[in-house]
RNA sequence: GCGGACGUGGCGAAACGGUAGACGCGGCGGACUUAAAAUCCGCUUCCUUCGGGGGUGUGGGUUCAAGUCCCACCGUCCGCACCA
């Protein structure tokens, strides 16, 4: 072999790793474990550069920790249930299981050449009956333990996917997957009672110090804690059963500014009035308006005066009208509010429209201004002057912050029995029922005699049928001729299976625990879970910042409560890293209809002057965006591996940007990465001069190698992989220039380079390790340790600033004390020239760094 | 509107409050070659009268010293939002 042949090298070392079972994770209590996990992929059929980056990042950590002496668990599986498989079944007639497993085969075949240090013996797919059967067992345990409930609920109905969506899966009023506007339907649904855990899930965020602050903040906002007053208005003229109207408010301090009350169109009171044709017409109008929050938000505020009155809690003689209003959400608080137009823009718009009074409760300090067109809504931490406080502030003044006023108002109302301070959360229960075929069947049966009955544990898994047909819309399980027929586990009579399957977020909420014992006959194995949990480092995309991570945190708690995880695992991910995307320039030529015609990078010839097609057509270069099929700015990992090898792809996605930021894939960058690896290969294989060499050059090289050990180690630990790579470029350059160094020292430096580069380019590292006289596998070699005595230079160059401007530099022995440095500075010719006879007022000497002369 | 992140050469980016621009891309020059490719070496923030002078979005401030800390503003991106 006379040049760098990535393909041959990579195949050879992958075989060697496999033969030695280097990456097989074995329970070994004598060694500290380290569990590194990347978010598992959906088997769409092809891997993309985003996968390569995600797994390259995780592999650096896994290989580094292994070299540092940890017993590393680095597994991979497949998030295999979901709609695309059913869509394929509908469109192409391929059974979902066949489509899915075929995709898994294809993607695994694409992944293996990348040489990730995965323990493939633990691989599973969530659609394996062995996995989802355990998930069913887990579900039954959670049902027994009270974490699951079944309730009639207004649900988000996706009319395209024909399924129910969790609130969390509705984005801007549209289904997160289909993008179709969501409709509202009432169904009986299965729920995980995650809202019961809202407070705990919120508080525990504080302990997740190795999570990005951004993710913790997003979860905090999602859980949405608020404190306020819940109280009941006494009603006048309401139907029987509605003598009181429960209201929740976060601003009880504005009660003196109340001018109306309003209920949601879905409020029971509104429904009770629906017999009135006018009410019915208004409610119909509200429903026709659409149900997305976005539509509700942008619609004109409309209300219907019910004629009912409520008494103001502070003054029974003061009556407020009760409206049904289209902007009140049933899901938040009690679905009923009081309106304070002066301090809420929605209420103000509403009051202006219906001629209701606007009563100022507070104003900016010392301001005479009163609310006109815009409501006055200061932050709750800002002090304001209360014109009519419910209670005075802490210092008996009417000037206080909203928070102080809130405390005072809650206290005032509680003392008089007018209401209670309560904490509410925005987080709602997690609806897990899906009316789809390709998911984990919910293991219960419906018996006409016994009602809803859990399936017996010994009958698990409740398997999906292999012979479903997809010629009708809706749930193929419902259409199956025999699958739904079963016997009741309680009475033995004829019964019908539940045909709802589970949200795929359930599958991904515990897979990390299953990896600790993928073959166990129970969901987890206590000893294995105790040894391997928690995930020490989780790596994935920011798009999962809320749903997947919140659900997993909930599941971990429920699994602890049901005996499936140890107490330490209630927060399953000790550290989280969210990586950026892989982007690429976009290329387009003018299309016939005036819209851009997107061009693949392969069609485009790019040079300094611009870009054009092979036939010379000018190509417009657009901004670099996430690689996507629609814009065709996609680079296929297969092609890159075929042309340059896996190490080049790995090196490039790690090298150019910090991992949390987006990285732009460029053809020139990939070329450069490959060129560098070729250079490393040549350095190891070209026959350097034998013989004694020059001791000084050897010493300098050895020092450079040990500095690289120190720096690369620190950079990897700090996730600064781009900086680690910069240090490796430097070390490579130093070896290349050290042709005069003794051969032994040169080879020692090459072995250090092999070890330091192994997390990024593991195949090439093995190759140069052997070439430089290493024994065994780098993948099994301990991480090198820097020799402290080699890290300091004998002399350092200190810049000398005069009044903060750099004017000279002096060379002093490393570690010189301040007095010695001062003397040298004051004797320096360049310094004396600038001083021009002046006497410095002060000399600041920062040892080994800098000197500043102050005049 | 609220919350957060960010703003540094032609580009991707470095920089415990201590020489701004490490490292890479691109560019320029050179070596090798009949030539090219490959490879290697050097230069590459801007201005400059070659002495220097300016420079990290803008304007202030703190400090011996500010890309870094503080205040205000401008811009970009992300998250949340008629949430009572």
Please characterize this protein's 3D structure.
Helix 18 packs across helix 19 and helix 19 (646-655) packs across helix 20. The chain is α+β, with helices and mostly antiparallel strands and 855 residues long. It contains 26 helices and 36 strands. The strands form ten sheets. Strands 8, 9, 10, 11, 12, 13 and 17 form a seven-stranded mixed beta sheet that branches. A four-stranded parallel beta sheet has the order 2-1-25-26, covered by helices on one side. The protein has a four-stranded antiparallel beta sheet with strand order 4-3-7-18.
Which helices and strands, and how do they pair?
Blueprint: H1 6-20, E1 33-38, H2 49-67, E2 71-73, H3 83-92, H4 96-111, H5 129-144, E3 148-158, E4 163-165, E5 170-171, E6 174-175, E7 183-192, H6 198-203, H7 213-223, E8 225-236, E9 244-249, E10 260-263, H8 268-272, H9 277-288, H10 293-298, E11 303-312, E12 315-325, E13 336-339, H11 345-354, E14 362-363, E15 383-386, E16 399-401, H12 402-415, E17 420-425, E18 430-431, E19 433-434, E20 444-447, E21 451-454, H13 476-479, E22 485-487, E23 494-497, E24 501-502, H14 504-507, H15 511-514, H16 526-532, E25 537-541, H17 547-561, E26 576-579, E27 582-590, E28 596-599, E29 604-607, E30 610-613, E31 620-626, H18 637-644, H19 646-655, E32 663-664, H20 667-685, H21 695-717, H22 721-737, H23 743-757, H24 762-771, E33 795-802, E34 805-813, H25 818-827, H26 829-835, E35 842-846, E36 850-854
Parallel strand pairs: 1-2, 1-25, 10-12, 25-26, 27-32, 33-36
Antiparallel strand pairs: 3-4, 3-7, 5-6, 7-18, 8-9, 8-11, 8-17, 10-13, 11-12, 14-15, 15-16, 19-24, 20-21, 20-23, 22-23, 27-28, 27-31, 29-30, 33-34, 35-36
The chain binds one RNA strand of 84 nucleotides through α7, β9, α10, β13 and α11.
């Amino acid at each position: 072999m006379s040049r760098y042949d990535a393909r041959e090298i990579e195949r050879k070392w992958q075989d060697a790793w496999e033969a030695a079972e280097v990456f097989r994770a074995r329970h070994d209590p004598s060694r500290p474990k380290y569990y590194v996990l990347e978010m598992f992929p959906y088997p769409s059929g092809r891997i993309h550069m985003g996968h390569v980056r995600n797994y390259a990042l995780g592999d650096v950590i896994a290989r580094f920790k292994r070299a540092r002496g940890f017993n590393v668990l680095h597994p991979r599986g497949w998030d295999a249930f979901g709609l695309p498989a059913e869509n394929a079944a509908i469109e192409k007639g391929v059974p979902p299981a066949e489509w899915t497993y075929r995709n898994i085969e294809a993607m695994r075949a694409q992944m293996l050449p990348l040489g990730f240090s995965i323990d493939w013996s633990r691989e599973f797919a969530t659609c394996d009956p062995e996995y989802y059967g355990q998930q069913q067992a887990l579900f039954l345990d959670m049902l027994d333990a009270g974490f699951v409930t079944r309730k009639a609920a207004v649900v988000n109905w996706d009319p395209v996917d024909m399924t129910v969506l969790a609130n969390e899966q509705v984005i801007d009023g549209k289904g997160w997957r289909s993008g179709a506007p969501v409709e509202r339907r009432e169904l009986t649904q299965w729920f995980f009672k995650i809202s019961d855990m809202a407070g705990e899930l919120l508080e525990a965020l504080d302990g997740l110090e190795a999570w990005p602050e951004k993710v913790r903040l997003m979860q905090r906002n999602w859980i949405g804690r608020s404190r306020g007053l819940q109280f009941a208005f006494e009603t006048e003229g309401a139907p029987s059963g509605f003598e009181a109207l429960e209201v929740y408010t976060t601003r009880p301090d504005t009660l003196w500014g109340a001018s109306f009350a309003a209920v949601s169109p879905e409020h029971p009171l509104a429904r009770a009035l629906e017999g009135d044709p006018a009410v019915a017409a208004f409610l119909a109008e509200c429903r026709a308006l659409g149900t997305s929050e976005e539509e509700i938000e942008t619609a004109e505020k409309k209300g219907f005066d019910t004629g009912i009155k409520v008494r103001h809690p502070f003054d029974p003689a003061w009556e407020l009208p009760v409206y049904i209003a289209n902007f009140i959400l049933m899901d938040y608080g009690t679905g009923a509010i009081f309106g304070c137009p002066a301090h809420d823009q929605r209420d103000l718009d509403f009051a202006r429209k219906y001629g209701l009074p606007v009563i100022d409760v507070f104003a900016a300090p010392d301001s005479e201004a009163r609310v006109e067109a815009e409501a006055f809504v200061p932050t709750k931490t800002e002090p304001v002057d209360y014109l009519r406080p419910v209670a005075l502030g802490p210092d008996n003044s009417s000037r206080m912050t909203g928070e102080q006023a809130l405390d005072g108002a809650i206290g005032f109302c509680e003392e008089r029995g007018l209401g209670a301070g309560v904490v509410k959360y925005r987080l709602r229960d997690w609806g897990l029922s899906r009316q789809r075929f390709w998911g984990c069947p919910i293991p219960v049966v419906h018996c006409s005699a016994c009602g809803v009955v859990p399936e017996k544990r010994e009958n698990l898994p409740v398997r999906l049928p292999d012979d479903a047909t997809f010629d009708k819309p809706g749930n193929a399980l419902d259409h199956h001729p025999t699958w739904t027929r079963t016997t009741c586990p309680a009475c033995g009579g004829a019964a019908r299976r539940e045909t709802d399957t589970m949200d795929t977020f359930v599958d991904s909420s515990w897979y990390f625990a299953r990896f600790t014992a993928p073959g166990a006959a129970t969901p987890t194995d206590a000893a294995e879970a105790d040894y391997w949990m928690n995930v020490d480092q989780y790596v994935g995309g920011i798009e999962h910042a809320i749903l997947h991570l919140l659900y997993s945190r909930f599941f971990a708690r429920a699994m602890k409560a049901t005996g499936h995880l140890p107490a330490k695992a209630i927060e399953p991910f000790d550290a989280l890293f969210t990586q950026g995307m892989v982007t690429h320039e976009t290329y387009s030529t003018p299309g016939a209809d005036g819209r851009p015609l997107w061009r693949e990078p392969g069609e485009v010839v790019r040079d300094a002057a611009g870009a054009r097609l092979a036939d010379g057509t000018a190509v417009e270069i657009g901004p670099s965006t996430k690689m996507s099929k629609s814009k065709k700015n996609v680079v296929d990992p297969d092609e890159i591996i075929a042309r340059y090898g896996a190490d080049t792809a790995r090196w490039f996605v790690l090298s150019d940007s910090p991992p949390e930021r987006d990285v732009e894939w460029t053809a020139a960058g990939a070329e450069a990465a490959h060129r560098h690896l070729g250079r490393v290969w040549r350095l190891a294989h070209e026959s350097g001069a034998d013989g004694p060499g020059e001791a000084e050059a050897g010493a300098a090289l050895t020092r450079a190698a040990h500095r690289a050990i120190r720096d690369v180690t620190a950079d990897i630990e700090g996730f600064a992989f781009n900086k680690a790579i910069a240090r490796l470029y430097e070390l490579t350059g130093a070896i290349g220039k050290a042709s005069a160094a003794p051969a032994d020292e040169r080879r020692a430096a090459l072995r250090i380079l092999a070890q330091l580069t192994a997390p990024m380019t593991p195949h090439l590292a093995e190759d140069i390790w052997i070439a430089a006289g290493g024994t065994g596998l780098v993948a099994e070699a301990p991480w090198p340790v820097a020799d402290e005595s080699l890290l300091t230079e004998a002399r350092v160059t200190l810049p000398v600033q005069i009044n903060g401007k750099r004017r000279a530099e002096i060379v002093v022995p490393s570690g010189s004390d301040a007095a010695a440095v001062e003397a040298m500075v004051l004797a320096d010719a360049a310094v004396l020239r600038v001083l021009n006879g002046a006497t410095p007022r002060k000399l600041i000497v920062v040892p080994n760094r800098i000197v500043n002369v102050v005049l």
